[in-house]
Amino acid sequence: MTMDAGTAITSGRTALGIEFGSTRIKAVLIGPDHAPLAVGSHDWENQLVDRLWTYSLDAVWAGVQQAVSALAEDVQRRHGVELAEVGALGVSAMMHGYLALDAEGELLTPFRTWRNTNTGRAAERLSAEFGCNIPHRWSVAHVYQAILDREEHVGRIDHLTTLAGYVHWKLTGEKVLGVGDASGMFPIDPATGGYDATMLARFGQLAAEAGAELDLAGLLPAVAVAGQPAGTLTDDGARLLDPTGRLRPGALLCPPEGDAGTGMVATNSVAPRTGNVSAGTSIFAMVVLEQALGSVHRELDLVTTPAGDPVAMVHCNNGASELDAWAGLFGQFARALGVEADSSRVFSALFTAALDGAGDGGGMLAYNYLSGEPITELEEGRPLFLRSPDSPLDLGSFMRTHLYSSLATLRIGMDVLQKAEGVRLDRMFAHGGLFKTEGVAQRFLAAAIDTPVSVGDVAAEGGAWGIAVLAAFSAGRAPEQTLADYLDGTVFTDASLQTADPDPADVAGFDAFMERYVAGLPVERAAVAHVAVGDRPTDPTPTPATTEEQPA
């Protein structure tokens, strides 16, 4: 380090990153050399309320206060000083979704997360009208669906934002969003760097036709790019983070970003021909483009890096949650035998066993769909495991099947990007809980996309570290310095990477698994149609077949 850690903390030469992930709220404090100085976290879970996935705002604030308190305790334990101020601060959160507030700043509906797939009619209509793919989870799809459903609250909307934008607003008073997260609210015009004016006008017409008068441009947050200042921590904001009053206001905040953008920063994947895969509750790939895509594809979202460069995104709603459930079951079995094993040991044993499994999963098949999956046109999900009568049921093949399943929907989208569009990748980085067991999921991902996959020594802190780096960039950026130059020349100069090249046998095995996976999708659709959830009646008519992700 360039200075003693304790001195850096007490003098405010630090940056604090806070990320609201799907299963964990995490706070990371970094020093002048960008190395983590302390970490704090709080576990939380989404709730299914009235058939919509949500988190309460009470849980947002209780959780971030727990994470910041744990961070302060870690600072005291490691460095013997009190955390009383930070030089810069950044907020990141799960992307997109729907937070609609009235003129008094009160939430009009429960927060509707990225995981909801009830916006199918809106997404289809907007995609056709705009000439670009509008995914189910984008904020514009949520608000248009609310209009189509004639929801009473629509006429009282004063402010639309994402979770990161909401928290940032409460900390600073500024209604602003980083361009990467903003690009998942409404399409961005690459020529202006702001929301596409033509599409905004067309949305207004569509809303009026459906009986709603909305000036969407006036409801959306302002757009900012990486490196710009985006407000300062107010007295009220500091109290929201630390009710004890120890944390002082005044820290500079960078534009708030989504977890996709902070994942790109955390893996140094903001330059063309680079990409990253983030795997936790969901799994998604971000690939920075050299040029525009040739066609519109429903499997690909067009978003941006935090600096505003174009990105093709493959987003899958379902990632490692089903793996987490199976690991929990095996942990219960171990305890029933009188063996105490913590979750990390269970995951390590199960993942390592997968290395000895059959290359194609041994005829087994699994679908990790806890929720709907737009890429495979499923509005709901039913976790499913099946095998043929002659499939051997051994632990290695069973676990390889479930690991393959966590990557399978991603593979479908990456095939469109790599094969149909011919997009080339020089490197792909991976981060998130799925890759904590060394050399397993990384190896299988390399096989799935037939591309070398690297993991780094900072990826364990993930997006919370990434948003801390963006905060440091805003506070210390040199004139005309780009984000890519800052990451290459300042942050990642001594980074250690481990790279797995695709193994031909693994590639062939994954290809064979994918043939079986796509062919078996009608079984998953039948499970959705015939297996009820809660009090939902089953639909006796299956959805028509089409041919066409260790948790964080």
UniProtKB/TrEMBL annotation:
Q: Does the keyword Kinase apply?
A: yes
Any GO BP? D-xylose metabolic process
Boundaries of every Carbohydrate kinase FGGY N-terminal domain copy: 15-238
Q: Which domain of life is it from?
A: Bacteria
Give the family per the record: Belongs to the FGGY kinase family.
- Return the PANTHER family for the record: SUGAR KINASE, XYLULOSE KINASE
Q: What is this protein called?
A: ATPase
Per the UniProt entry, what species is this protein from, by scientific name?
Modestobacter marinus
